[in-house]
Structure formats: C-alpha cells, structure tokens
Amino acid sequence: MLQVTHEAVRVAVEDTGPSHDETAHRGTSGGGQGLVGMRERAALYGGHLDAGPNTRGGWTVRALLIATPPHTTTEQRPE
C-alpha cells in the first residue's frame, strides 16, 4: 500500500509468510541496519515505522513520513 498526500506519505509492506524456496535466503549477508535503520530514517522525516507479525504468518512493516516544506533561508540585510 502506498498513499501520498500533501501532508504525508504512508507505506505498508506485507510478507505473507515463510518461503518454501530454500534459495530465497541465499546471498543475504545480514550486515545491514534492518529495522533500526529504517526507524531512524523515518524519524528523520518526522515520522515513524512499526513492524511486527501479521495474521497471515508473515510480517507487516508500516511507515509514515511527514511531508515538510523545503527548507528556506531568510537573508538578513544590514540596517
């Protein structure tokens, strides 16, 4: 699910359960930042991330990212 508005971006990714394909996990190093890194990134945008098991035997990850106006600078002029 992806929902984009002027105020926020919401995304949800659902895994329906364990894969029966043994090759599905090959090549994964496990050296990433995982959920901790994703939560930190979501917080950078004023949002949050939740993850946990779902009713289908897999996991669901949901994130909310707050849309903010671009940073503007105000030039001060000498009086």
Q: Span between N and C termini?
A: 53 Å
- Structural class by sheet pairing and helices: alpha+beta
What percent strand? 25-35%
Largest sheet: 4 strands, antiparallel
Total number of β-strand segments?
A: 4
Strand order, largest beta sheet: 1-2-4-3
Helix content: 10-25%
Uncertain residue ranges: none
What is the typical, i.e. mean, pLDDT? 82
Oligomer kind:
single chain
User: How many DSSP H or I helices?
Assistant: 1
Rg of Cα set: 19 Å
Inertia-based shape: globular
Order of helices and strands: EEHEE
List its traits.
4-stranded antiparallel sheet, 79 residues, alpha+beta, globular
Can you describe what's shown?
By secondary structure, the chain is an alpha+beta fold. 14% of the residues lie in helices and 30% in strands. The chain has a four-stranded antiparallel β-sheet with strand order 1-2-4-3, with helices on one face.
What is this structure, in a nutshell?
It contains 1 helix and 4 strands.
What's the structural blueprint in terms of helices and strands?
Blueprint: E1 2-4, E2 8-14, H1 34-44, E3 48-53, E4 59-66
Antiparallel strand pairs: 1-2, 2-4, 3-4
